[in-house]
Amino acid sequence: MTELINGRAHVNSNTQYLWSDQLLLLVTAINNLRNEGVDVQINFIEFNHFSKSVNYASRLNFFKHLRVPYIEDFSRKNPIGRFTEIKKFDENNALQLQREIVQILISNGVNEDMLIVLDYCLWEVIDNTLNHAGPEYKYGNGYGYLCCQYFPAINEVRIMIADNGIGIHSSLTQHPDSKYQHLNEAQAVGSCIKKGISNSAGKGFGLWATAALIRENKGELIIHSGNYQLQCSSEEVIYETAYWKGTYVFLRLNTNMPVSYELIFDRSDQRNNFLDFKEEFLDELDSLW
Q: Residue 76 and residue 32: Cα distance in Å, rounded?
């Protein structure tokens, strides 16, 4: 679909199918290069203005994020209940965007036990970017991009959260109070989903709970930071791969798959918090009608 070579982004618009998460990664990488002063030139290969792929990319605000002029020839439908566009987040709008994703799944009657856990895990991943991706480990310094799409026909949701921050290895090893300063990059990425692993600025529970959710749900989790990628489904595999500045987290979940809440949380706080939020959201929907 895309190549990024020597500051030139080559995009094939005739790709049969695009995922919003793939487009988000390209947006994140190109905007990071621009922030670092690189003059990025974007070339579209065999560009077909009327193709489904081009219209889909435009609907997700792909061209807007890349600052590429594009005039749409279709009417935009409301994304509520189906997907989010590619969106940039920081401390000012992060909670709002997290809630938008959960609302998509609530409004479609997705398995509640899974949603209780996902509600928590999604915020923890976003919060990692806010709290750990920025310099000086100061909360609010980090920012990133996210997107979500729900596919009701196959009972699946795909979520991507990406940043170009300091990365997992630097976060775990360079914090002055970290107990894990001895880890190499592969060990740091491989350890990030273990319970209690943190640079001391967090509890080390969020990514562990996310991995536990994926195993229970029989979904897929990918964490890529630096030169290493961790893939987690029924098994965990880590391997060396192309460099990614910062961290991205990809979640693919089965929305009809029950999840045992008690295997992940030993308190009722998260269930109660979610049910309060769900009731508030459903009340808002009722008021609209």
A: 28
